[in-house]
Amino acid sequence: MIICSLAFGEKYVWRLGRLKEMLATTNPGVPFMHWIDTMPPGAQSFNDSMYGFKPHCIQACLDAGHKQIVFIDCTCVVHGDLSYYQQFVEEYGVLAVQDDNKLTGFCSNKVLKYIGQKREFLHDKHLVGGSFYYFDFNNDLCRRIFDWWMTTERLGLYGSQREQASEGLQGHRSDETMMALALYLNGSKPYTKDTRYNWAEGGLINKAHFK
Fold this sequence. Notes:
Structural class: alpha/beta
Distance between the termini: 27 Å
Radius of gyration: 16 Å
Number of helices: 7
Order of helices and strands: EHEHEEHEHEHHHE
Number of strands: 7
Helix content: 25-40%
Strand order of the largest sheet: 2-1-3-6-5
Largest sheet: 5 strands, mixed
């Protein structure tokens, strides 16, 4: 397993440092690949592809020879062994925790056109949170999900800051929207089992955005 993350800007770089220190205690010996104030190979600027660096972080880990890859947002704190999630990943291909919001309010018309669907297609489908993704590339389902996710980033479907400002993008949530669709369109779904994610107490991963 390898863990990866990225941070830019003083507030977030500090949080990545906190994450690195915590991982050294909770996941000792697990490699941690990270980027500070720079992008992984192949990634566009943040302005041109919002959060589009994420699949490129995963690709960099793949290119380094890793198969089990965890992306963790730099604002997270990790209280335990992330290999806990390995027991669930075969079923899902990629673990991406389900968000309470339905996807219908968070997908651009451009993306709906790309997948050849009307907005009604999204009514029973959920958004995912983008702070934690667990990939196992020993699983063919994982590969299909990732390939779709990466392809749509390269096609500009995560959205740019210009599009967000000028068009609104119907609340489009960049990597999170596209990961949710990658799951559903490849026969998977967002992860809803015992996630231990963002529990007030006893959680394995907690989001601590400005703490």
